[in-house]
Amino acid sequence: MLQIILYNFDIALEAIQQNKTRSLLTSLGIIFGVASVIAMLAIGQGAQQEVLQQMKLLGTNNVIIKAVQEQKEKEVENEQSDLEPETKRYAPGLSFSDMQGIEEIVPHVNYVSPEVVYETTFIRSGRMRTGKLVGVNQTYFDINNFSFLAGDNFSSFQTERREPVAIIGYGIRAKFFAGENPIGKYIKAGDLWLRVVGVLNKRELSTESIKNLGIRNYNMDVYLPLTTALLRYKDRGVVTRQDIEEQDSNGSSNDIGNSDSSNNNQLDKIIVQVSDNKYSADIADIVRRMLKRRHNGITNFEIIVPELLLKQEKRTKQIFNIVLACIASISLIIGGIGIMNIMLASIVERYSEIGLRRAVGAEKRDIQLQFLTEALALSIGGGLIGVILGIALSYIIEISAGILTLVTLWSIALSFGVAILIGIIFGYFPAVKAAKKDPVEALHHE
């Protein structure tokens, strides 16, 4: 059987070589179809990978609470109420006590991590740049999937003693400690020198991720214990005489933490890690109601459930890519129609060959196998060229458009397999027609 198949392939290749231009034009549909499917699937895989990276950045089981400007709500009962002076209620900002309340009250919570961010200036060895100084607790790095390049996390002793220690991002290390080990050395943040106890591994962040997710460039941050930040820098939850004077005079200061004297949020963000992501939506609702009650009914916070947002984004991209893949598959169908058309024309041209083979003993299934093999050879040849073109097209799209594309083996196998299947399907009818041709009529055909 193998010899018969190889023999028919030799005949098919010989027929293709005799009509090279026509065979190439016939295969164009298959070539462009396979290339389009591979490129579209590569774009889809790249989009999915980006979503997975975003989920890793934000945490799959996290609920994020962010401090925002007060969102005022006013109900007008009648026209007279518009004329009455509105009593302004005091709304405490996002605070350390809010974090403790979440830890104590909300169920299915593994960790709660606070975060306070100060705009400041980093200085060391004649180098200076502005950046963000971030006060966090020990669980922050686990919740946000950070890993350490050198050193270690803050110790309980350092946190309790409010020591001036820091963990620096990969970019800060490259900027201020190039060619040296930063552990144990000092960097100045604002007016305070911080001793480096840890260095974070580099985090790959695309510009799109930073923009879409509203996240910082973690590689350029300096982290210190939250207790140290609130004691040695600025605790916005504590109102001082200086704050009152600045508020009255509408003055401003360039000192750390004082850029907005009206900001009474002790914390800028609280990250809640739930035990299972199936509880994320319910916990977000519980936290929303609890904080609104604690803040006197004022909505001065925003709750984000990253997993729900990213799942929706992933679903949207999947639908979009499926539509693109279906459109690209039309080229494969057109290519199959082209193969069937050229095979039907080839049968008419080769009536004498069919009659001669039947006269010397070839059976119907031999004729059918011959033309089916020829159609299959066209689809295999077009498929191979299409695979090469598809891979090249994927890389061209990634370089020119800045879109992440991932060519996988299964996408190549899928598109190539579909091309072969189309060759068999659309080559079957012409092969059957050739096999049914009467040998006497075929020999007399001119």
Question: Can you tell me about this structure?
Answer:
This protein has 446 residues and is of the alpha+beta class. The protein has two domains: 187 residues, no CATH class; 204 residues, no CATH class. The protein is 55% helix and 17% strand. The protein has 15 helices and ten strands. The chain has a six-stranded mixed beta barrel. A hairpin with a 2-residue loop joins strand 2 and strand 3. Helix 2 runs antiparallel to helix 11 and helix 11 crosses helix 13. The longest helix has 44 residues. The protein is elongated, with a radius of gyration of 34 Å. The relative contact order is 0.20.
Q: What characteristics describe this protein?
A:
single chain; 446 residues; alpha+beta; 2 domains; six-stranded mixed beta barrel; 55% helix; elongated
Question: What is the compact description of this entry?
Answer:
The chain has 446 residues and is an alpha+beta fold. The chain is 55% helix and 17% strand. It folds into 2 domains: 2-55 and 312-444, no CATH class; 92-295, no CATH class.
Radius of gyration: 34 Å
Low-confidence stretches: 74-84
* Helical residues, percent: 40-55%
From the N-terminal CA to the C-terminal CA, the straight-line distance is 33 Å
Q: Using DSSP, what is the number of strands?
A: 10
Question: Count of helices?
Answer: 15
Order of helix and strand elements from N to C terminus: HHEHEEHEHEHEEHEHHEHEHHHHH
Strand content: 15-25%
Q: What would you call the structural class?
A: alpha+beta
Quaternary structure state of the chains depicted: single chain
Whole-number count of domains: 2
| Major beta sheet summary | 6 strands, mixed, barrel
So what's the overall shape?
A: elongated
Mean of residue pLDDT? 78
Order of strands side by side in the largest beta sheet? 2-3-8-5-7-6
